[in-house]
Amino acid sequence: MVEISFLTESDRACWEVLARGKDTYFEVERSDDDYARTWRRLLDDEQIRGIAAWLDGKMVGFAHYLYHASVWYSGKCYLADLFVDPDVRRRGVATAVIEWVAWDAKEHGFPSLYWNTLEDAPARALYDKVGKHHQGFILYSYRRNANQSSTQG
């Protein structure tokens, strides 16, 4: 049976092994400072939360999520990261994590949970069962160039 709990100080080493595993899987490079900063946010920021999934006393997954205001709704919950150890996938861990995050968000007044993933992510098989894929939506991101002037034209 999957057990879910908020991350605590004593979870740091297990969390970091999994977090680095997630980043390796997605080919993301981060510095040691990035992991340290994120860890502090997960424990200290009231809007950002981190949970761990446990099987047989071993941390096998985690999720990071945050609450935010919404223009049209009472608020939303964004599931920023969800990762499960490849050795225990397809045992209900990710489903339990998603359900737990949705429950926690609703309990805190944020009834809408959403996330994004890669088009070809194997996890889409699960996501298509538990969530709604909004056909036609495209995700954009923008990062301002530090050398760009504040006025254009």
Your description of this structure?
With 153 residues, this protein is an alpha+beta fold. The chain has one domain (3-130): 3-Layer(aba) Sandwich (Aminopeptidase), CATH 3.40.630.30. Helix content is 32%, strand content 23%. The protein has 4 helices and 5 strands; from the N terminus they run βααβββαβα. A 5-stranded mixed sheet has the order 1-2-3-4-5, sandwiched between helices. The protein is globular, with a radius of gyration of 17 Å. The chain starts with a strand and ends in a 23-residue tail after the last helix.
What labels describe this entry?
153 residues; alpha+beta; Aminopeptidase; five-stranded mixed β-sheet; 4 helices; 5 strands; globular
Summarize the structure.
With 153 residues, the protein is an alpha+beta fold. The chain is built from four helices and five strands, in the order βααβββαβα.
State mean pLDDT (0 to 100 scale): 88
Q: Can you list the strand order of the major beta sheet?
A: 1-2-3-4-5
Helix segment count?
Answer: 4
| Main sheet: strands, sense, barrel | 5 strands, mixed
Secondary structure: helix percent: 25-40%
The CATH class is Alpha Beta
**CATH fold annotation:** Aminopeptidase
CATH homologous superfamily heading = Gcn5-related N-acetyltransferase (GNAT)
pLDDT below 50 for ≥5 consecutive residues: which ranges? none
Distance between the termini: 60 Å
Fraction of residues in β-strands: 15-25%
Net shape: globular
Topology pattern, helix = H, strand = E: EHHEEEHEH
Beta strand count: 5
CA radius of gyration is 17 Å
Which class do the helix and strand fractions yield?
A: alpha+beta
Number of domains: 1
At CATH level 2, the architecture is 3-Layer(aba) Sandwich
